[in-house]
Please model this.
Amino acid sequence: MSSLRTARTETLEVAFLHEGAEAGWPVVLTHGFPYDVHAFDEVVSHLARAGARVIVPYLRGFGPTRFLSSNTMRSGQQAALGQDLIDLLDALGIERAILAGYDWGGVASCVASALWPERVTGLVSYAGYDIVDVERLGHAFAPAMEREIWYQSLFQLERGRECLTLHRRELCRALWERWSPGWTFEESTFERTATSFDNPDFVDVVVHAYRFCFGTAAGDPALASFEARLAKKPTIGVPTLTLDGLRDPLKPGGTAHHASMFSARHEHRAVDCGHNLPWEAPHDFADAILTVRGWIG
Model:
């Protein structure tokens, strides 16, 4: 049974679910937007039975996680998400861990693996090499893709901030339905996660994340050196298994072509599901982690 715990970093009071023995092999599972820790409920139990110490943090701006200071920039940029993972490992006294994530969590896990590979024993990343190419996002995509990322364009405007503030449940529910065709979920399932969107920093973090990605908002100056390194598209040098959902409208054609961005052992798998792979296909996600665990011993 998972327990809710907290850990204090220099920036955050991070709330996280914990399951498994303290002496187990550590794995950190990181959710995306607009989801939360419950996306991994079935994954967690599977891994804990395999001897893992499973840590599932609420991202900054989600659920009970809180900023320690009102003066801290409510940044949602990729370097902040990656550093949050490393800071959490420090707070928990964990030297190295397997990182596994999707959506924002995939970004965080890839960033941490690229910038701090000495802290990562292995990586499972949904949607391949998921480090944001800020320069590319400043240019147009084909109309079919622009239609799918309408919410990102909306968030560039103050009316987008207002929409997310006033209608966050309706907006996020629409994304769940659009991104996971064929996945049927009960209203109670959505509402259990939607409470995480009531975090007082949710709107600011989400809006900044997409404005930074589009190059329309400045990042945290303290993270500028990390973003400069990420802009050079560093390869990831830890054992990695990447995943795609065959019915994910955000990733048409998948990401198998990202293979050259991984310089250590790498395997790619495609799963018959949508964007929310850990929830739609939890056994596939857990098996990917166990496969990486088998590689590293």
Remarks:
- Strands lie at 3-8, 12-19, 25-30, 52-57, 66-67, 97-101, 120-126, 240-245, 266-271.
